[in-house]
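Support request from a user on the community tier.

User writes: "When I paste my structure tokens into the form, the page sometimes reloads and wipes my input. The last time it worked, I copied everything first. Here is what I submitted, just in case something in the input itself triggers the reload:"
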């Protein structure tokens, strides 16, 4: 079973809505909602891209392997 992501929780702590996140990342609101609810799994490259656009570490937002977390810093 996949570990839930922390995207929605992290964004709420920043005072951002999923609409804000969609605008910053270039993904649609409906897609980001599915991702935040764990209904869509992102590949490693998409996780890195989202984290960079939000100014976060991948490990702040998603469960990741150590190698991926280090690559995003």
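"...and here is what came back when it finally went through:"
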């Amino acid at each position: 079973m996949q570990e839930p992501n922390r995207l929605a929780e992290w964004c709420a702590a920043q005072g951002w809505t999923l609409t804000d996140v969609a605008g910053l990342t270039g993904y649609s609101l409906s897609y980001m909602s599915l991702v935040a609810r764990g209904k869509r799994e992102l590949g490693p490259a998409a996780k890195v891209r989202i984290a960079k656009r939000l100014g976060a570490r991948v490990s702040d937002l998603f469960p990741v392997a150590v190698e991926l977390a280090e690559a995003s810093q």
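Agent notes: The reload is a front-end session timeout and is unrelated to the input. Residues 58 and 70 are 9 Å apart (CA to CA). The chain has a mean pLDDT of 85. Escalated to web team.
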